[in-house]
From TrEMBL:
Domain of life assignment: Bacteria
A Pfam family recorded for this sequence: Pyr_redox_2
Molecular functions (GO terms): thioredoxin-disulfide reductase (NADPH) activity
Protein's UniProt name: FAD-binding protein
Membrane-spanning residues: none
InterPro entries assigned: FAD/NAD-bd_sf (IPR036188), FAD/NAD-binding_dom (IPR023753), Ferredoxin-NADP_redctase_2 (IPR050097)
Catalytic activity: [thioredoxin]-dithiol + NADP(+) = [thioredoxin]-disulfide + NADPH + H(+)
Gene3D superfamilies for this protein: FAD/NAD(P)-binding domain
Domain FAD/NAD(P)-binding: start-end pairs: 5-293
Source organism: Agromyces bracchium
Keyword annotations of the record: Flavoprotein, Oxidoreductase
Length: 317
């Protein structure tokens, strides 16, 4: 089995950023990349300093290319399983993990970082999934500027999405907020009305497009329609955290989802096991995911340095 300082599961913005920090610290790193980034349906990233309006896949390709100057290997594949490896009594070192890939390859790692991201569970509305990443989007900061002054529909998953509609009102005067049965507090409804946001209480039953596949609008339960140039939704963020759970990392119910808990350095409750990016945080920003991975990578290196000091003292003694 190949042995590494760190195995990183997930080659998105968080995983590659962690690999960069570790590689620059002369750590041997294996990144196992399943090739399914959350923002793959998007043609462009926005709000990423120096990379605004560029392809998210181009960003990842550039990141992988940068890593080639370091002792970092990026391998395509999936992790089938991972388990802690017991260290023999008196043997130097700390926690270690055995990682099994779907190809059957086995690797040993002193530390394991999971950066497998999440999937967006969309509302069950016909036509919506087909427009995801094009006419249907999530983030006002990521996609709002491109539809400024256009016709915008915001489809609620809960009453809290009234704030999403207010964010879009900053960018366009033509905004309709579809409650989907959510009960709005009087103050929220008054705030929407005060800024000229139409509140639509009839349910949206379809998102429809023209013959060329371009978004045209939304259809309501009584058959009436709203024409729209963009639809904003708030999908349920479901983390890809099966591996963390198999390793018995502690979790807590947050925002309707069981979320694996990490400290500010990305440490889970399992010694030597770290997590970074969207797998432990639903923020949709690429810069946030990059920051999370970078800081966690630095924390892992510091952890390994502490272990190297202990090993050196033991050997000296």
């Amino acid at each position: 089995m190949a042995a590494w300082d760190v195995v990183i599961v997930g080659g998105g913005s968080a995983g590659l950023s962690a690999a960069l920090m570790l590689g620059r610290s002369r750590r041997s790193v294996l990144v196992v990349d399943g090739g399914r980034p959350r923002n793959a349906p998007a043609q462009h990233m926005h709000g990423v300093l120096g990379r605004d309006h560029t392809s998210p896949l181009d960003l990842l390709a550039a990141g992988r290319a940068e890593l080639t100057r370091y002792d970092v290997v990026v391998e395509s594949g999936e992790v089938a399983d991972a388990a802690e490896v017991e260290t023999d009594a008196g043997e130097p070192g700390g926690p270690s993990f055995e990682v099994v890939l779907d190809s059957g390859e086995r690797h040993l790692a002193r530390r394991l970082l999971v950066a497998t991201g999440l999937r967006d569970e969309l509302p069950d509305i016909p036509g919506l999934a087909e427009q995801w990443g094009r006419g249907v989007v999530l983030c006002p900061y990521c996609d709002g500027w491109e539809v400024r002054d256009r016709r915008i529909a915001v489809i609620a998953s809960s009453a809290a999405n009234a704030h999403q509609a207010q964010l879009m009102r900053q960018l366009s005067a033509d905004v309709v907020f579809c409650t989907q049965g959510a009960v709005l507090a009087p103050a929220a409804r008054s705030g929407l009305d005060a800024r000229g946001i139409v509140v639509e209480d009839r349910r949206v039953i379809e998102v429809f497009a023209d013959g060329g596949g371009r978004l045209r609008g939304i259809r309501l339960e009584d058959g009436s329609e709203w024409e729209a140039d963009a639809v904003f939704v708030a999908p349920k963020a479901v983390p890809h955290d099966d591996l963390l759970r198999r390793l018995r990392a502690r979790s807590m119910r947050q925002g309707g989802v069981d979320q694996v808990l990490v400290d500010e350095d990305g440490r889970t409750s399992v010694r030597g096991l770290y997590a970074a990016g969207n797998v432990v945080g639903a923020k949709s920003s690429v810069p946030w995911a990059m920051s999370s991975g970078s800081l966690t990578g630095a924390a892992i290196n510091a952890d390994l340095v502490d272990e190297d000091v202990r090993n050196a003292l033991d050997a000296r003694g």
